[in-house]
Design brief:
Strand content of chain B: under 5%
Largest interface: B-C, 52 and 44 residues
Shape of chain A: elongated
Oligomer: heterotrimer
Strand order of the largest sheet of chain A: 6-7-8-3-9-10
Distance between the termini of chain B: 7 Å
Shape of chain B: globular
Chains: A alpha/beta, B mainly alpha, C mainly alpha
Distance between the termini of chain A: 33 Å
Number of strands of chain A: 10
Strand content of chain A: 15-25%
Number of helices of chain B: 14
Number of helices of chain A: 12
Bound molecules: adenosine-5'-triphosphate, magnesium ion
Order of helices and strands of chain A: EEEHEEHEHHHHEHEHEEHHHH
Helix content of chain B: over 70%
Order of helices and strands of chain B: HHHHHHHHHHHHHH
Chain lengths: ~350, ~325, ~350
């Protein structure tokens, strides 16, 4: 086990009270594995990722509790200075906004080399490796690009530069927070392919954050579905696509345009994620869930209701909850699960 | 680069024309000359001859075309004419006064910039702590004291009580140094509050940028981030907000110079105000505006030099 | 013209104007409570002890200024006696005397005071009570800052709205005008204007405002630009709502917070500028008490023997505290109204 996150809670002080942006998240990443975290905007994906490196925006944000075991040791025990040794070395991160994530007043080369110098490599080695990296991530004229400033590159190119920065010290885990969201569709595919290739070459694990199920289908081995600061479903990709259990996950799938459901209404999730400063008392999805009954509004579901191997945070699977329908409600509806993998790839 | 500068200068021409029109209107369009004369004559009910005399002295008796020429063509060719009160040639007096003003103003500018920037860096480094809160509060206090109180009060404390320098006066050559001490110290202190606050905001704006997060994620040390990443970016607004002030340093400070008897342009202007020397005030308004516009051109150039994103073509 | 002046000279009118202003302010403050945004801002201000202190200080200054505006005019001498005059005016001494002193200071030789020990800030060169003169300065400060604000805000607002909302031609024109105006150094423009217009409250306010409306205009233009392309404005436009209504009903309320913050911070700058103008000899008339005049007349007093420090101290502390209060309130308002603007 490379990374194991246990019951992570990251809160924010806000004028409205304490916003529990990440509220008890657990998941794990094996060596060389790709885990995806999916969920709608605002459900705490980025904050989870930032918490791993303890880069939550201060002073408003803070890690309340939890454990982040990296190679068996808790990262939260480390001081800021000790954390610095991990960042960019064992764990590196790429961000959603390639436009602003690079410093506009330094050349690309300087910024790649900086990563290596921060971890004790000498200038000559760093320079040589920077060139090699730029070449590897598919930049045409690597030695020319070294001397260019970020604004002279396109979004896709900048994200490639970000990837070279992230890979510079051969990390064991790459955290990619929506690395392709800001890019054109064709460029998206190229960047994803690049990440996958690089992962094969180096054997690093990837934690991929996205809200795009299509991307999940393509690259992830396992998936954590997040909703309102919690993981609501955790499954191997294939199984999740074959049989999504949580109504929220089903909602996400239903909102995909699917070839085999043409002619039907395009079902979408109605409503929005509730305010993180005031989560509902019961199930956080209850207000938007068409299968919810009273218990859903009053009792918060647990993550392992029936001790099954595929944890789901939903009362439908909890034999101890009263008022539960005897069979899963959607089994009486039209099947929406037909070839979801195919659908997602659209 | 050259074409870039030329283009900037071309942009300034319509502004200069506008300014000439505004200043002409200011002096000749707003009030009728008689009214101005009446207002400025110290006697309560001036006789017609007195008014006439005042108008002649202040150049209001000339025909409108002559006045227009004086406030446009003559100004542009630095032909400012003679002082209303002393009859001295204004341009030669301006040339004399520019140096003392520039020396005092330049020293105040450079020392003030260094201290303000350093303090702002300290505040930004300790952001969110008591150090930062104290500096911010201290700035507001500094900003709330009126400039003349700095001058009068500090002259008293530093000059009279502590005897750190002569109360006032001027000398050429090295002898100047001892007269410079007090005005420069006072000038620096009086500007500090606003500058520290401004630079602190510039720095903090940058610390919230995404590239800082990237640098942290790379494992770069905090001090390095502050001095290499944040400072370099924050220097851009600092430079652009200060470069504009450089040309106007020649104008000097009215209060400081008149109070310390520094023979600069600020002092000259104060004398002109007291003597109702319209020609001198007019010349100074034009000069000040011209220097401001030059400052704006400097700003554009500085911007192009420091920011790789500005293209020069 | 003549009759208008007579009308304004009436005791009743002179007393009604400050009452009206206070009533208007009070109404606006109470009315604002009903808006959710402002109610929230009030609550946050109330929780901030520094802001409360600033409001109290400003309130006290305001009260002094208000009481100094209410009074009666003597039928014969035409002298106006305000509440402040009645409460704080002291017998005139011969010359300087230190705070709480019973004798005058220095030349030709000390003589007994008419009101020994009762001049808490001493007396000035002509024997007037310094504390009383300091109180009188509050009204001048409020009038100058208030009138100037009343001049620059509408001008800046209207031009800024037009430039930001209509863009194109109007924007070019207005931008050109304010670039030209802002190229003239503010202090030089003030000097020139006072020379040409003469001294007097209105003239000084115009001189102070001439350079300052530019800042307001630039700010409003920028903010309007931001709002112009927002969804709700586009929707209103699509529904055929008239431009004027969009500007007044949709955009203006959104600009109110920035306007109020800017005005609050600007108030302190104006009070400071008044002092500088007085120092340069182009401020308010010497007969009208002002802190700037007091500081100006005090400039040689520190060189005297014994040192006359109370005149300068009294005026500059009065000015300092008011400016500090407005600065603090402005910053607190910024935090309270829009936490995103927090620096
Ligand atoms: N600086 C902050 N101050 C207060 N609350 C914050 C802050 N940053 C994030 N939050 C809260 O954390 C929640 C989760 O934010 P996060 O950025 O992790 O969402 P996300 O899942 O990454 O969404 P997106 O897809 O938009 O990136 C938000 O709903 C917000 O309320
Ligand atoms: Mg995110």
């Amino acid at each position: 086990m490379l990374l194991q996150v246990e019951n992570l809670k990251t809160y924010f002080h806000t004028p409205r009270g304490i916003a529990k942006a990440v509220d008890g998240v657990s998941f794990s990443v094996e060596k060389g594995e790709t885990r995806a975290i999916v969920g709608e905007s605002g459900c705490g994906k980025s904050i989870t990722a930032l918490s791993l490196l303890q880069l939550v925006p201060e002073p408003a944000g803070y890690i309340e509790s939890g454990r982040i075991l990296f190679e068996g040791k808790d990262l939260l025990d480390r001081t800021w200075e000790q954390m610095r040794e991990v960042r960019g070395d064992d764990i590196s991160m790429i961000f959603q906004e390639p436009m602003t994530s690079l410093n506009p007043v330094y050349t690309v080369g300087w910024q790649i080399e900086e990563t290596m110098r921060a971890h004790g490599k000498n200038a000559a080695t760093a320079r040589a490796r920077a060139l090699e990296l730029l070449d590897r991530v598919g930049i045409k004229d690597p030695s020319g690009a070294l001397r260019q400033y970020p604004h002279e590159l396109s979004g896709g190119m900048r994200q490639r530069v970000m990837i070279s920065i992230a890979l510079a010290n051969r990390p064991k885990l790459l955290v990619a927070d929506e690395p392709t969201t800001a890019l054109d569709v064709t460029v998206q595919a190229q960047i994803l392919a690049l990440i996958r290739e690089l992962q094969k070459e180096t054997g690093m694990a990837v934690l991929l954050i996205t809200h795009d199920l299509g991307i999940v289908a393509e690259v992830a081995d396992t998936v954590s579905v997040m909703y309102a600061g919690q993981v609501v479903e955790d499954a191997p990709t294939r199984e999740l696509f074959k049989n999504p259990r949580h109504p929220y996950t089903r909602g996400l799938f239903a909102s995909l345009p699917a070839r085999n459901r043409r002619g039907q209404d395009l079902a979408t999730l109605e409503g929005v994620v509730p305010d993180s400063a005031a989560w509902p008392k019961g199930c956080r999805f209850a207000d938007r869930c068409k299968y919810a009954w009273e218990s859903c509004h009053t009792i918060a579901p647990t993550f392992h209701p029936n001790g099954s191997d595929r944890p789901v945070r939903c009362h439908l699977y909890d034999p101890n909850i009263s008022g539960r329908p005897s069979r899963l409600p959607w089994l009486t509806e039209l099947p929406v699960t037909a070839d979801l993998v195919e659908a997602a790839k659209l | 680069m050259l074409s870039y500068i030329l283009r900037r200068i071309l942009y300034a021409i319509p502004i200069l024309l506008g300014v000439l029109f505004v200043t002409h209107f200011l002096f000749f369009g707003i009030s009728s000359p008689e009214v101005i004369a009446r207002r400025n004559l110290s006697t309560r009910n001036p006789k017609p001859e007195q008014i006439k005399q005042w108008l002649t002295d202040h150049g209001y008796d000339k025909p409108a075309s002559e006045q227009l020429k004086r406030s446009t063509i003559d100004m542009m060719s630095f032909n400012f004419g003679k002082s209303d009160t002393t009859g001295e040639d204004i341009w030669s007096r301006i040339k004399q006064g520019a140096l003392p003003s520039l020396i005092v103003g330049g020293l105040v500018f450079l020392i003030g910039l260094a201290i303000a920037l350093l303090t702002a860096i300290i505040a930004a480094y300790f952001r969110g702590t008591y150090v930062d809160a104290f500096i911010t509060f201290f700035c507001v206090v500094l900003m709330s004291v009126v400039y003349i109180v700095y001058v009068i009060g500090l002259q008293f404390v530093l000059g009279k009580l502590l005897r750190l320098g002569p109360i006032s006066g001027w000398d050429t050559g090295l002898g100047m140094l001892k007269f410079l001490a007090l005005p420069v110290v006072i000038g620096v202190i009086s500007g500090l509050g606003a500058d520290i606050r401004l630079y602190r905001t510039f720095l903090l704006d940058e610390t919230n940028q995404d590239y800082v997060r990237t640098a942290r994620a790379k494992g770069v040390a905090e001090q390095w981030i502050l001095f290499r990443h944040v400072l370099k970016n924050a220097l851009m607004p600092v430079i652009t907000s200060t470069v504009a002030a450089i040309p106007t340093l020649i104008l000097g400070s009215l209060v400081l110079e008149s109070f310390f008897g520094i023979p600069g342009l600020g002092n000259y202007l104060v004398d002109a105000i007291n003597g109702q020397d319209f020609s001198v005030v007019r010349a100074m308004v034009f000069l000040g505006t011209l220097l401001t516009i030059v400052g704006l051109i400097f700003t554009d150039i500085a911007y192009a030099l420091v920011d790789p994103r500005v293209r020069l073509e | 013209m003549e009759s208008l002046e007579k009308f304004f000279a009436l005791d009743f009118v002179q007393n009604a104007i400050p009452c009206l202003i206070v009533a208007l302010l009070a109404w606006a403050l109470i009315r604002a409570r009903r808006e959710p945004l402002w109610a929230e801002a009030y609550r946050r201000l109330g929780r901030n002890p520094v802001a409360v202190a600033a409001i109290v200080v400003i309130g006290i200054y305001g009260l002094v200024a208000f009481l100094d505006s209410i009074g009666t005019t003597d039928k014969v001498s035409q002298d106006r006696t305000t509440v402040i005059d009645r409460l704080f005016e002291m017998p005139k001494e011969k010359t300087y005397s230190a705070p709480f002193a019973s004798m005058t200071t220095g030349e030709p030789k000390p003589s007994a005071l008419k009101a020994p020990g009762r001049h808490i800030m001493g007396t000035d060169g002509v024997g007037a009570d310094v504390f009383y003169r300091t109180l009188k300065g509050a009204r001048t400060a409020f009038i100058i800052s208030g009138l100037t604000t009343l001049i620059i805000t509408p001008v800046g607002l209207i031009l800024g709205l037009i430039a930001g909302y209509y863009g194109k031609f109007w924007d070019d024109i207005i931008q050109y005008v304010y670039t030209v105006i802002s190229s003239i150094p503010g202090i030089l423009m003030q000097i020139a204007l006072v020379l040409v217009l003469g001294k007097g409250i209105w003239q000084i306010c115009i001189a102070l405002g001439a350079a300052r409306w530019v800042g307001m205009c630039r700010l409003i233009r920028g903010e309007t630009l931001k709002h112009r392309d927002r969804e709700y404005v586009r929707a209103a436009k699509a529904l055929g709502v008239s431009d004027l209504r969009i500007l007044l009903r949709h955009i203006l309320p959104n600009l109110l917070p920035v306007i109020i913050i800017t005005v609050t911070l600007g108030f302190s700058g104006l009070a400071l500028s008044e002092a500088i103008l007085s120092y340069l000899g182009i401020g308010v008339d010497a007969s009208m008490g002002s802190w700037g005049n007091m500081i100006d007349s005090a400039r040689d007093e520190l060189a005297r023997e014994p040192v006359i420090w109370w005149n300068l101290t009294s005026a500059s502390i009065a000015l300092f505290v008011l400016v500090l209060a407005f600065q603090t309130l402005g910053d607190a308002l910024r935090d309270a109204i829009d936490p995103r603007l927090r620096s």
